[in-house]
Amino acid sequence: MEEIKDIKIEKSITVKELTKQLASSGFQAQNLGAAIEILKEARENNAKTFLSFTSNMAASGLRGIFIDLIKNKKVDVIVTSSGSIDEDLIRSKMPYLQGSFEADDIKLGEQGINRMGNIFVPNDRYEFLDEEVKIILERIHARKKDMTASELLKEVGLEWKHEDSFIVQAAKNGVEVFCPGITDGSFGMQLTFFKGKNKDFRIDLLTDFQKIIDVASTNEKKCGIILGGGISKHHTIISTLMGGGFDYAVYVNSNSPYRGSLSSATTEEAKSWGKISSDAKSVTIHGDAAIVFPLLIASLD
Amino acid sequence: MEEIKDIKIEKSITVKELTKQLASSGFQAQNLGAAIEILKEARENNAKTFLSFTSNMAASGLRGIFIDLIKNKKVDVIVTSSGSIDEDLIRSKMPYLQGSFEADDIKLGEQGINRMGNIFVPNDRYEFLDEEVKIILERIHARKKDMTASELLKEVGLEWKHEDSFIVQAAKNGVEVFCPGITDGSFGMQLTFFKGKNKDFRIDLLTDFQKIIDVASTNEKKCGIILGGGISKHHTIISTLMGGGFDYAVYVNSNSPYRGSLSSATTEEAKSWGKISSDAKSVTIHGDAAIVFPLLIASLD
Amino acid sequence: MEEIKDIKIEKSITVKELTKQLASSGFQAQNLGAAIEILKEARENNAKTFLSFTSNMAASGLRGIFIDLIKNKKVDVIVTSSGSIDEDLIRSKMPYLQGSFEADDIKLGEQGINRMGNIFVPNDRYEFLDEEVKIILERIHARKKDMTASELLKEVGLEWKHEDSFIVQAAKNGVEVFCPGITDGSFGMQLTFFKGKNKDFRIDLLTDFQKIIDVASTNEKKCGIILGGGISKHHTIISTLMGGGFDYAVYVNSNSPYRGSLSSATTEEAKSWGKISSDAKSVTIHGDAAIVFPLLIASLD
Amino acid sequence: MEEIKDIKIEKSITVKELTKQLASSGFQAQNLGAAIEILKEARENNAKTFLSFTSNMAASGLRGIFIDLIKNKKVDVIVTSSGSIDEDLIRSKMPYLQGSFEADDIKLGEQGINRMGNIFVPNDRYEFLDEEVKIILERIHARKKDMTASELLKEVGLEWKHEDSFIVQAAKNGVEVFCPGITDGSFGMQLTFFKGKNKDFRIDLLTDFQKIIDVASTNEKKCGIILGGGISKHHTIISTLMGGGFDYAVYVNSNSPYRGSLSSATTEEAKSWGKISSDAKSVTIHGDAAIVFPLLIASLD
Predict the structure, then answer these.
(1) D20: pLDDT confidence band, cut at 50, 70 and 90?
(2) D131, part of any domain
(3) Has residue D66 been placed in a domain?
(4) Which of A283, D160, D186, D203 is the S-S candidate for A34 at Cβ 3.0 to 4.6 Å?
(5) Percent of chain D that is helix, strand, coil (3-state, to 5)
(6) Number of C-beta neighbours around residue C130 at 10 A
(7) What is the mean pLDDT of residues D210-221?
(8) Which residues of A participate in catalysis according to the annotation?
(9) CA-based Rg of chain A, rounded to a whole angstrom?
């Protein structure tokens, strides 16, 4: 067994130098170190990489990392929740604001500010989104009536004018974006209203599930990086079930696995299902993706 | 201000007698007491009641309570995740098993047992589901090709032979079941495979979102009981946005609101968005629905 | 393996009837059921019972249950933190108040109200405590200068005029109260000030540790009920180390075991140390003592 | 209000460059950024700095940072739990080992290995500690019979032969180490056994409380860095109560504040008590000290 070693912080220490030390420090620092090794090996073996995240992360600075991973071809498939589309498209043009967890929510509501933890989103952001999405849907509908959600997101990415967006960059770089709960947000609400006026407009989620199953049923090695829980987490791992499960998997999650929910389930639990291969290299970091994920990515190159 | 009072446990104390005391005991016991008062008032005012839960809860004994609430017309709308359909249909015929959180997941996998916290689900359960769903989809498809997810779930409820099911009881009792992420599970996988063979088979989620928005845009008082997080939580509350938000809301959730995720957001945060009305009576119980929800329901009658 | 069974809530259901059902419901409800069986068996075998709790619990309604357990000779040893002495002595005379987690703490401070979660404690409570403790220490000191913390707490219990107190009832019923961190609170501060004026006043904690080790080094069966974490948890379990560890143990704790702290460690982890016997019957309820403990106790008789 | 900004990870990014970006990323990354600014200002104003931590942290790599902070005169007062003394003294000579959270605890027990999360501690470590402490206590007792816990720890630090220890470095560098629950661990057990043989051996905790109150009742600015909960957290903040509370305070804690325990209470709650001054700069990082604390310290120079 390896020894626990004390951390020594030198002046101007790099993230990589620090996380190398964290690996032998214990507790979740140790799990973080294990995750770095897993992701390094996955990259060396050119594993097909699935990245799943929740919409609050797209509202935070993590979105910048997602965009760069896509541009640099470090991920192959994105699975996310509908809110991520909202946050991504809005923030490509209008910033979100630093707020406070302790704010008075009723006052915020009166001021037209929506709170997402300590991130504040003024109403005009969603008004902007609504207007822009209406226009784009018209354009897409003019050439295509029936498509899967991932096809729609590709079309949106190609139409959207603001480049600083993971939807846009995914479309340009051939990265598939799956969103199995696509109606559940502001973008989804616009889809619904558009459907109300255009009965021939159809978003097919059934075929998209087949598509991600096909992507995951590959002879290549597969790697899952699963940030947070929810439908994006489950959809990512269930998609690999028929392809033998992930060969490499890192979960970053801060919920208790003792409630029995999938959102908080560990990489170990996934092995009983075959969603992660029984001989996979995998680890759950019981921590906060807002801090852990930048450390993870900065330690890989 | 009311006083904190010591709890006195008499022999054969009823749940109702105990929770009345918990209300003045402090911490989450106090929040539980507040929730009971909110739900009582909602019932007295005939509030339209939305119940949202996650699939692990359908795998647990809570499902019995969901079924009775539906039979007794105590809820009007159900919003849940796709896994709930799996667990409900299977358990109407084949039981799940009491397991352990500490089991060896690789051994379980070898034995064909899937672990969901401390609930074990042998593979034959899913095989049963797959077979039955195939048959039912054929029957439904024979008469209907294009429908919303909630229409499909109603059809399934009418076709399913085993009565001990919330899907069946909802269909029989006129309770709408919404499932915005319907593909994301075993039932969803069968939908996908069926779609592969039957191109004219269509599940429309866009129109379903309009439908729940319409249901929630009522002049009646609205009450939300939101157990756990995920897409079912968010979909329930976003649906009320245009109708002015919930007038009564109880969340039961054990995650930390300090991650900024919707799954862990409090009833207060929802007021900044208008998903809960600014003058609503609402409370978040930071606790475990597996224990808290039975206490809540047993305290209402 | 036993089956997972649906819960059925009958009108006027008793706590005992409900928890019997929770035992086969899954997740922490299942763990609660296991804990009830363990404590029943411990009682049947007349196990010597150690109860450990944190000071916030003494500030809540749980204190009433602690008092009754002592009066009814259902516990033999109490281990708690210093704050519990404060809350117990104050509340024997002056009530704490129901507050709110969301209160403005700076305003509360200006109003002379101290917040403990959603329990409010006006400053006059502590002023009352300070005055009363000063008087009592004078009386005790007149007859005894050097004593262990548990001896001191016994003296306090015999001197205190207000009967509705676990300190008083423990003194009267021969239940030892250990408080290894006795200085760390308002009562402790008065001890310190008294020591400043009376150099011959001595509280011996070293001998108290020997005393609890002796109590725990018995041929009788030993049962530990450990609510929350902190020094009271660790002190309880380390005390049994030389006596072979607990034969029955129930932890109720809501923290994540993935930080590696003793406060959040499970009953399993304790078996590696021998603080719980390797063949003990034990379970960790990953839940909230404010709600779980009343259910547990109400299910025993 | 400041904008939320996307994170950009450059090759060989330093920790300081990353945390500067995290500050405008949202959620706990934002709180981490706020904490860095608070600690920078505290250092610029030469605030007297109190550092509190739990024993699991002394078992991990964080101990290296504690030692360096002491050597570099960046902290003035340490408050910790008794276990920290054990881990520190042992690790100055014998390493702890990297283990796993999922290990079989009964097997570990049979192998003589104690588990602390994913850190393994073989029995011989505690045997070493017991032997060494016996010898040292004899030497100290030969010259001093009655002392406070902090005086004892200073004596131990001066006697201990292995320099790589925070106890040793604190003694050499004039940093006070307070341990209000000093009996509660292996070192504490040796104190107890020694007391059994030497009735004139006395550890005075009452006077130590006065000492830390005096240290905290200063006209200088005061800064509290509170890692984790337990008695070390509470003792640190109660000590400042008479001196007006902390002027700067950073908590790092991963427990839910909704249980009402002091261990999980926020910096805001402390302001209602005056343990943190109402105009203090303070923040709670709802996160894991094992990862957060190294980031914090590496961002200060």
Answers:
(1) very high
(2) yes
(3) yes
(4) A283
(5) 50, 20, 30
(6) 15
(7) 95
(8) 275
(9) 20
C24 close to B (CB below 8 A): yes
Residue C218: band (very low, low, confident or very high) from pLDDT cuts 50, 70, 90 = confident
Alpha carbons within 13 A on the beta-carbon side of A266: 23
Which residues span the domain enclosing B69?
A: 15-298
**C-alpha distance from residue B121 to each of B182, B186, D206 (Å):** 21, 13, 57
| Nearest residue to D4 (alpha-carbon basis) of C255, A164, A3 | A164
* CATH number for position B218: 3.40.910.10
- Per-residue confidence band for D21, with pLDDT thresholds at 50, 70 and 90: very high
Torsion angles phi and psi, residue C48, rounded to 5: -70, 125
pLDDT per position as a tens digit, D127-184: 999 999 999 999 999 999 999 999 999 999 999 999 999 999 999 999 999 999 999 9
Its sign, for the CA torsion B256, B261, B264, B269, is positive
What is the total count of domains within chain D?
1
Chain B contact partners (≥3 CB pairs within 8 A): A, C, D
pLDDT cut 90: percent of chain C above it: 98
Taking the alpha carbons at both ends of chain D, their separation in whole angstroms is: 27
Collapse the DSSP code of C127 into the 3-class scheme (helix H, G, I; strand E, B; otherwise coil) and give the result: helix
> Mean per-residue pLDDT for D76-99?
98
pLDDT at B186: 98
C-alpha distances out from residue D54 to B200, C116, D133, D253, Å: 63, 22, 21, 11
In this complex, the chains that touch D, judged by 3 or more CB pairs closer than 8 A, are A, B, C
User: Chain B within 8 Å of D26 (Cβ-Cβ)?
Assistant: yes
Q: Name the residues of D annotated as catalytic.
A: 275
Distance in angstroms (rounded) separating the CA atoms of residues D224 and D229? 13
- Structure token pair of residue A6: 């004390």
Q: Are B183 and A205 in contact (CB under 8 A)?
A: yes
Q: How far apart are CA D177 and CA D153, in angstroms?
A: 7
**Interface mutation vs chain D, best among B27, B106, B256, most D CBs within 10 Å:** B256
Distance between CA A30 and CA A34 in Å, rounded? 6
D257 vs D270: CA distance, rounded Å: 12
Of the pLDDT bands very low, low, confident and very high (cuts 50, 70, 90), residue D235 is very high
Low-confidence ranges of chain A (pLDDT < 70): none
Surface-to-core class of residue B116, CB atoms within 10 Å of its CB (0-12 exposed, 13-18 middle, 19+ buried): buried
- B290 contacts chain A (CB < 8 A): yes
Residue B14 CA to chain centroid, in angstroms? 26
Chain A residues within 8 A of C27 when measuring between CB atoms: 258-260
A117 belongs to a structural domain: no
Check if the beta carbon of residue C179 is closer than 8 Å to that of residue C81.
yes
Beta strand ranges found along chain A (DSSP E): 48-53, 77-80, 97-98, 113-116, 119-122, 146-148, 176-178, 202-204, 222-227, 246-252, 276-285
Q: Where are the beta strands (DSSP E) in B198-275?
A: 202-204, 222-227, 246-252
Determine the residue type at C270. Answer: A
Question: What digits encode the pLDDT tens for the residues C68-94?
Answer: 999 999 999 999 999 999 999 999 999
What are D114-126's pLDDT values in tens digits?
999 999 999 999 9
CB atoms within 10 A of CB C63: 27
Give residue B42's pLDDT band: very low, low, confident or very high (50, 70, 90).
very high
Q: Comparing C-alpha atoms, which of A151, A172, A179 is closest to residue A84?
A: A179
Question: Half-sphere exposure of A93 toward its Cβ, with a 13 Å CA cutoff?
Answer: 14
pLDDT classification of D79: cutoffs 50, 70, 90: very high
The pLDDT, as a whole number, for residue C5 is 98
From chain D residues 202-261, the ones with a CB under 8 A of any chain B CB are 254, 256, 258-260
Outline where DSSP puts E strands in D229-275. Answer: 246-252
Asked, for residue A120, whether it belongs to a domain, the answer is no
- Position C301 pLDDT exceeds 90: no
